[in-house]
Amino acid sequence: MTVPARGGQLWIRRFHPAPDAGVRLVALPHAGGSASFYFPLSRALAPRVEVLSVQYPGRQDRRAEPCIDDIGELADRIAAELRQWADRPLALFGHSMGAAVGFEVARRMDVAPIRLIASGRRAPSTHRDERVHLRDDDGLVADLRKLSGTAAGVLGDEELLRMILPAVRSDYRAAETYQGESGAKVACPITVLLGDDDPKVTLAEAEAWREHTDSEVDVRVFAGGHFYLVEHQEKVLAVLDERLKVPDSV
């Protein structure tokens, strides 16, 4: 069950409050994803880390709201929401589109996060000419099936599928049209995670995250495709436990 966020916010979901946690992890979903994708991660990390899952507009209980199809605008809104959660050190975890959002949120934060964890996403300095968001509905669904990131029950339920496609298309448009600002960096370390068979990011594109911070960058490769993190949850959790240490200076 979701515990209501401060002030009844719609953006931030705190599934497992952890008042004694030394750090909060802000979890940013992939294209078409929702805050509930991170419920298992939140449960696994509590109470040592408190997870704040972001709910983008246009899905689940925010379905009636207009989607935001621009990474910069999403980052502006999320960074503003996070100001009231900055009484403890914050780290950012984003998967796929969420990694690009996380990078831009980190650039906008008043106090730099202790770490950015970028999963399943090429570095902002790299570019691909991707146009999946311009396909018809069948073409969009075909890409979802290829990535295996949408529950089989959703892909098999025509009515439910058509309900989520507007948000999926909007997110794909945001992710595919995003181009990082030349020379843009964050003031924190970066951990990059990827699957070795991910069609959305190569090892070279992952290594290019080194261009986006003057701090340290480590790249971890797992067996699997774009949603390797579902299959390797325990290994991903081990990386998070290792990397989400609050610096003594904080």
From TrEMBL:
GO molecular function, a single term: hydrolase activity
Keywords: Hydrolase
Record has Methyltransferase as a keyword: no
Domain Thioesterase TesA-like: 26-244
Keyword Cell inner membrane listed: no
InterPro entries documented for this protein: AB_hydrolase_fold, TEII, TesA-like, Thioesterase
Biological process, per Gene Ontology: lipid biosynthetic process
PANTHER family named in the record: S-ACYL FATTY ACID SYNTHASE THIOESTERASE, MEDIUM CHAIN, THIOESTERASE
Entry's family note: Belongs to the thioesterase family.
Name of protein: Surfactin synthase thioesterase subunit
Organism in which the protein naturally occurs: Saccharopolyspora shandongensis
